[in-house]
Amino acid sequence: MHDGSNWHSTLQLRYAMRDLRCVDDARHDGAVRVLAALRPEGDDVCHHVLVHPPGGLVGGDRIDIALRVERGAHALLTTPGATRFYRSLGAPAVQTVDAVLEPGARLEWLPLEAIAYDGCIGRNTSRFVLQPGAEMIGWDLLALGLPAADAPFVHGELTQHVEIPGIWLEHGRIAADDRALRHAPGGLAGASALATLWFACGEALPEARAQALLDVARAAIDASGIDAGATWPQPQVVVVRALGNRVEPLQQLLRTIWAAWRVLGWQRPPCAPRVWRT
What span, in angstroms and rounded, lies between the C-alpha atoms of 69 and 25? Predict the structure, then answer.
């Protein structure tokens, strides 16, 4: 929907198992939509590539994505490019994701990074409701400015919010001029890229399973040399956090851990979306 100055786009997604096949239903209003529905690893997992043809959000734009993964279904969602929050003249640009996973459902939420351009005012919010027996692997990557293009993030702000209600909440406002947050050792320590990866369940993880997820994540972190850590902050969630000066190495680390978690947690070999190689 376009009101002449701002874009408001909505996308509704639903995944269900029918006769051993994960079927999908996608309905959109506005620019955001499904580019392709693929099943590269068989009928039981649906891969969706989501696109936003305008290429980014300016102040006043809004994208709302709602998805439901029904009992026993398995969906993997990604994007072919970054989500860009461009300079704003005052109004925020907003993207929201609201997901519900029914018992036995699996979701892989794996979009490419968000980029906070200098002068943006962005709100990036994700909320995942996991019913008992549901599981997900998700990540969130953020690049602050374009330092390699001599366009650092020196004005504006971006608010990141990732929530599994009643279980886990990550919420932070990054203001470009907040020197303590941006540069202090207890903050971002000068990093311009940050990443979070999580494995979450609708009920408590057995200790042995959580420890195995931590062990493979820590082995990948040690091999990467990246400033990162893996923790088990809540019985239902294992989390990896990483900082760096470029988003690409962080993204590669998260992909490595995602692949290992897929095998360890779900006994499924990694099946990287083809769009990641383009």
Answer: 11
